[in-house]
């Protein structure tokens, strides 16, 4: 006997959508069961599959052999059976260095390293590397694959976050290609008229462009690229506001970093090799609002990043992380200043101020303006409102508990900040959090026995010569 709950859960998993509780009726079970029987009958009546008649496969082979005969190519499919089929057929065509990865694979990460060794820092000989990697969405999150600049969606997912995550595996920091190519196989015209998959994906991409946070064109005839570009560059007004959140801080810090290493590539190795607790002092022209003192960057025991600015009396100058970062910015050739005798004492005071602030305002959830604190508070309230409905899923409750207990991953912070700033509903926020939780990309899980200590990363004295 097929249970209604099993059918519903399978649909939710495949489509990425949740079904409203009022639709749970016996008639739904009857219709779903009828659909299952119809599909089984179609399978019985279908003739043996002839791969020579597979036009879709032939187009893929042409892409691999003629359009991109030497480059690395990443192919995604929703279905493990399709991955097995494509891997077998491509290898039978004499194409070498091909591998497939699904949820049943023994070590997907090892296969990903062979496909993209440089971005993962793995010294793998070229003779053992993979040129064509075919995978389910098990590889759409959590691994560096940016040695590749060509991605193929052999089928389109129903949930847009899957499409975004796929491209995000290669379109990220460390990608050296000037252009990234994304090919998507679309449903046949007759099928598209019935299921409208392409049009639904485009509509959801446009509605959620602020969550995408990039300028990718997923379909070649997209005409509203400027909307996404404006959102990405914060020109549309949707990201306006005074909140001093991590997404702005990260963007500003990354731009400072990029400008520096573009001007002098040798700085990258020099800076990365600096030890923690490194400090320096530079000449500074104080103002009444921003006096002389010390800037401090530290990571708390809870994994939260904090900046502090302490004046010569040990008082906090500002809590704006953005203002502190801008005050620290200077040219790489800026001459160092002799350090002030108070420097280390002021650093100690800064550590105490950060600890006190975290204790009084956000606790282990960090600053109230941060994505972790705001996401937790909103979802805790949302779960209370939808208690007893399908929306209050077990995965959502586990995700909320994980946010409380563990620090967020940097990729999760980026996405949550964009989602929060875009004005997403609680339901949309919960869908994103659950997706990140399921993909194990929400929080950094520390071993229970491991005690993480607070770390002073660096400090900078600002004193007038």
At the first level of CATH, what is the class of one domain? Answer: Alpha Beta
What's the overall geometry? flat
Beta-strand portion reads 5-15%
The side-by-side strand order for the widest beta sheet comes to: 2-3-1-4-5
Instruction: Please name the fourth-level CATH homologous superfamily of one domain.
Output: P-loop containing nucleotide triphosphate hydrolases
Overall strand count: 10
Over the alpha carbons, how many angstroms does the gyration radius reach? 26 Å
Total helical segments: 19
Q: What structural class results from the helix and strand content? A: alpha/beta
CATH fold name of one domain, please?
Answer: Rossmann fold
Major sheet size, sense and barrel closure: 5 strands, parallel
Low-pLDDT residue spans: 190-195, 210-215, 218-248
CATH architecture of one domain: 3-Layer(aba) Sandwich
Mean pLDDT: 77
- Distance between termini? 83 Å
**SSE string:** HHHEHEHHEEHEHHHHHHEEEEHHHHHHE
Q: Percentage of helical residues?
A: 40-55%
Explained architecture:
The protein has 465 residues and is α/β, with parallel strands linked by helices. It has 19 helices and 10 strands. It is flat, with a radius of gyration of 26 Å.
Which secondary structure elements does this structure contain, and how are they paired or packed?
Layout: H1 4-15, H2 26-45, H3 55-67, E1 73-76, H4 80-92, E2 98-101, H5 108-115, H6 117-120, E3 132-135, E4 150-153, H7 160-168, E5 181-184, H8 189-195, H9 197-207, H10 209-212, H11 225-232, H12 246-263, H13 266-272, E6 278-283, E7 293-299, E8 305-311, E9 316-318, H14 321-328, H15 343-362, H16 371-385, H17 394-405, H18 410-421, H19 426-438, E10 455-463
Parallel strand pairs: 1-3, 1-4, 2-3, 4-5, 6-10
Antiparallel strand pairs: 7-8, 7-10, 8-9
